[in-house]
Amino acid sequence: MHIPLHSLYTFFVVCRAGSMKEAARELHVTAGAISQRIRELELRHGQRLFERTRTGVMPTAAGAALYADIRAAFQQIETVARRDLPDDAARQLVVSVMPSFASGWLLPRLGDFARRHPAVSLSIDSDARVVDLKTEAIDFAIRHGLGNYPGLEARWLMSPAMIVVGAPDLLRQGPPIRCPADCLAYPLLHDRERQDWTLWLQASGSASPKARRGLSFNDEHMLVRAAIEGQGLALVRDIYAGADLEKGTLRKALDGQWPTQFGYYLVGLPDSFAASGGRAFVDWIQAEAARAPGLP
């Protein structure tokens, strides 16, 4: 006889949390995975086990009866499993990070976090997509933007220097660039997300729908190469253009103070910042960013 312990434990956690989203966070799976497990259990029992409410879910009569049958057993199993674990080790900490930030800045520093907080089980989800922290089993995300994320808490980490560059001939033949808005008179070159020009111009008070037009590249070195070929202006981190600026194949198109609100932010739900493991990670990464803000 097959006993669906995996689905039964998921059912137990959903009942206790009163929300599939919160159960997904606790079990570190997606909300879709939780829904699938509950559907499988409902098919097995031949009846619905939950009803949706305004704030989450509640068991049906059949679900309440099942919960009463299994609650004590799973509570005892959890007690045994957690008996010798420190508080921080009771759950894994999942952080979503853009690949470029993960490899260029975060990865070399993770060993220090592991040494300082051995009880925290840290998992790095390196993906360029924008995760949904309200529905996915992810505690924090490190995002590049202006820090305005409705419904989420954001902590500023750093604002690495980015510069506008173009080929000397392009800049010589084109209109003068005296302020950020003047860049819109030129073709703009983008990375894959097409966000940097929009956010930079917005932070400078020059928001425009034209900011998303132009060629895009999934590699920053290709982006710089396109600028060298005179295909448009590129907004890049200074480290990627330094050698070409020295050789004269690129020229800075604009000097000025980089808007510090356009930077990297640690983003999460308030509960994630309040949890003990979350606090340890927040304190550590803010200290690291203050000590060494530049991207290598």
TrEMBL record:
**Keyword annotations from UniProtKB, A to Z:** DNA-binding, Transcription, Transcription regulation
Keyword Iron attributed: no
Q: Which residues form the HTH lysR-type domain?
A: 3-60
Q: InterPro entries per the record? A: LysR-type_TF_proteobact-type (IPR058163), LysR_HTH_N (IPR000847), LysR_subst-bd (IPR005119), WH-like_DNA-bd_sf (IPR036388), WH_DNA-bd_sf (IPR036390)
Q: Which domain of life is it from?
A: Bacteria
Concerning its family, UniProt says:
Belongs to the LysR transcriptional regulatory family.
- Supply the name of the protein: LysR family transcriptional regulator
What is the originating organism of this protein?
A: Massilia mucilaginosa
